Amino acid sequence: MTDVGQPDEVVVRALGVPVGIPATGDAARRLRHQWSRALTDEPPTTSIDVSEIASADDVAHDYAITTRVTMAALDATAGRRINLHAGAVADDEGRVLTVIGPSGSGKTTAIRLLASRLGYVSDETTSIDELLGVHAHAKPLSVITDPLVPLHKESLSPDELDLVRAPDQAWLHRIVLLHRGLDDDGLVPLDQAHAIAEIVEQTSSLVQLEHPILRLADTIDACGGVWSLKYVELEDWLDDLVGLLDLEGQPPPARLHHPGADAGEPAPGAWTRAAWRDAVEYDDELVLMVDDRVHVLAGLGVVVWLALADPATVDDLVAEAEALWGAHPEAAALVADALAVMAEAGMVRPPA
Predict the structure, then answer these.
(1) Predicted local confidence at residue 8, as pLDDT
(2) How far apart are CA 282 and CA 290, in angstroms?
(3) Distances from the Cα of 297 to the Cαs of 50, 91, 99, 232, 342, in angstroms?
(4) Are 119 and 167 in contact (CB under 8 A)?
């Protein structure tokens, strides 16, 4: 990847970033057709390297181009935006519905169906700034064109698929986590702690943000919470997804922020917290990010971690737990087990 444009480039806006694609002749014409919604006359701020794309097959070549453009845009926005592995559509007012999920969860299918009624923003990447603005990634969609050859996907323009155009300005309004399987439970509100943990798994460069867990928590609160969609056939839930834009959001829960801190030196004779990047505490759960891993603590785990704001012995921690819940004959063993699990996960450190 380079930082300057080259001659004979196709320039597209990806996540608001002008990205240059070196191409000429038939390849350039094909790419301009596929990227019809994202073409720009702006000079590129970054260009992709196509020298390593060795495939002579146009389909594989164009898919590799799309992947590199997306990565270039993600690199350019890292540390400034929440970048989700998610599709997004927007209504005429610019209210964005984003559907989040891993590969195979049905994002592209969901967006193709939703974008017959709402504006196409992206089928795979939703980029959200600090004001909840969503920056479009109107890339070609990777679509199975022959049901008899399900592994063969072509890159098709959103214009070729007749997807609705999104407004120029849009902001995040509703968040849905996709769960395709055998259950058809539909849209169900999720608690914030587990929603954050699941969303973190579908982000890029989240750890580069200042206070990443707080940033996610603030975003979720501003969007009225998170919903899970458990479905078998997405067509059966299309009306519900569209209707979610007008459904009243969930009230934000009370929470406390515990900004990340260095661990310092281990304490003689006492347990301490390990260094953590960020944490948000809810009523009875705590979302803790250590390095790039996220843990959701509940019950005794929360009590132990909060009590270790200062170094503490096992006896101190047992006393803290019993002060909250009363005496228990196995309190010492339960606290020791919790400490062992948390230490193995890198959340706490044993005495020096």
Answers:
(1) 81
(2) 18
(3) 45, 37, 26, 31, 10
(4) yes
Number of domains in the chain: 3
Let me know: does 108 contact 121? Beta carbons within 8 Å: no
The pTM (predicted TM-score) of the whole model is 0.92
Residues 231 and 190 in one domain: yes
Neighbouring residues of 163: CB distance < 8 A, sequence distance ≥ 6: 112, 115, 116, 119, 120
Q: How far, in Å, CA of 339 to CA of 272, rounded?
A: 10
Residues 316 and 229 in one domain: no
Q: Is there a single domain that holds both residue 99 and residue 232?
A: yes
Question: Do 214 and 257 form a contact (C-beta atoms < 8 A)?
Answer: yes
Which residue type occupies 8? D
Question: Which CATH number characterizes residue 334's domain?
Answer: 3.90.930
Dihedral pair phi/psi, residue 167, rounded to 5°: -65, 160
Q: Could you give the count of Cα atoms lying within 13 Å of 138 in the half-sphere of its Cβ?
A: 32
Query: Which token pair is 265?
Result: 């030196």
Q: Which residue has the tokens 């948390």?
A: 342
Q: Classify burial at 339, counting beta carbons within 10 Å of its beta carbon; exposed 0-12, middle 13-18, buried 19 or more.
A: buried
Name the nearest CA neighbour of 164 among 89, 240, 94: 89
Q: What is the pLDDT along the chain (352 residues), one digit of tens a residue?
A: 444 444 489 999 999 999 999 999 999 999 999 999 999 999 999 999 998 887 778 888 899 999 999 999 999 999 999 999 999 999 999 999 999 998 888 898 999 999 999 999 999 999 999 999 999 999 999 876 666 555 567 889 999 999 999 999 999 999 999 999 888 999 999 999 999 999 999 999 999 999 999 999 999 999 999 999 999 999 999 999 999 999 999 999 999 999 999 988 889 999 999 999 999 999 999 999 999 999 999 999 999 999 999 999 999 999 999 999 999 999 999 999 999 999 999 999 999 9
